[in-house]
Amino acid sequence: MRIALATSSYAPHVGGVEEHVRNVARTLRERGHDVVVWTIDREGGHGVRDLDGIAVWDLPAPLPARSFRSMLHFALRLPRAALQWRSAFRAHRPDVIHVQCFGPNGTYSRALAGLTHTPLIVSTHGETLADDNAVFSRSRLAVGSLRRGLAEAAAVTGCSLVAIDDLVARFGLQQGRGVVVFNGIDLDEPADDTKPEIDARYIAAIGRVQRVKGFDLLVRAFARADLPRDVLLVIGGGGPELDSLRALAEDLGVGDRLVLPGWLERPRVLNVQREALVGVVPSRFEAFGIAVLEFWRAGTPVVTTTHGGPPEFVHDGEDGLLADPENEEQLAAALRRLVSSSAERESLAAAGSARVTDFTWDRVADAYEGIYERVASAHRRG
To answer: What is the mean pLDDT of residues 344-351?
Structure first.
């Protein structure tokens, strides 16, 4: 099949949807499908590049705003953007257009699908919930476009039931139309085999350092847990809250035990996860929680949030611990429990290592292939 994956963001940018779409694109291509990626150029430009043997179209996606100046700017840019999206379609003529993480990419893909009578598939990655910029609370255009996209889509998927339920509750998705397709992970991704730079026992958390990820909640719980002095807290990742995390740790008396290495390349991420005593995913909300899969793959016991997708696949006390990160004592107790018990750490780590094999990219591709075939067949009949 000819498949267009229209994503809100793509490599070289780093994040959950970027990893998801890149791995799906590669897996589908390996299965013989003709795959193209359409993504948004953040500078409003246009270009075509090759990544992993797949054509990636960086496209502009101007949208109107309320001010007269913004409307004028949009009117001047729209004709060129429309032509470039149409060129992307004509170069590939996909059998299906699959929107991953609905944003401006979804608005333009929806319009293009309607004009070309191409089946549209929409996949949510929790963008309506884990949204620090509150786009779907502030923008009537974003809400309206998503509602129309869901109504017009031949199929809708979500990375978790909680993400789909939000589309039903707030954006008009018909109950029962959404299908859960969990995220995947590369079980063989290579780690950095050099000796870790952190020569101590430590608890680890990895991700972009922003409010929704809850790293400030983890710092508070770490301080409250009163762990042995030789246990450090490592939070790997860049982001806007690094300085405030440092200040918070100093205020709580654990500044000398907080390690903030900043943004880490993938092999080093895997190394940090593998060598950690405990892994933590303390998000205020996590649509799925791919970091849980990463700690499982690394053979590291994990504590994860009760907010969002993780409770849908983590079995509390069997392959991980669930804790409410906004309940400081509950999260602190989970940290104390694992740091103090090597037997429980080993048990959870072994169960997680076994469980992660259920979350391969082949399984994700299987689910999407089934949807593509059903949608394309219905389109041909109809």
So the answer is: 98
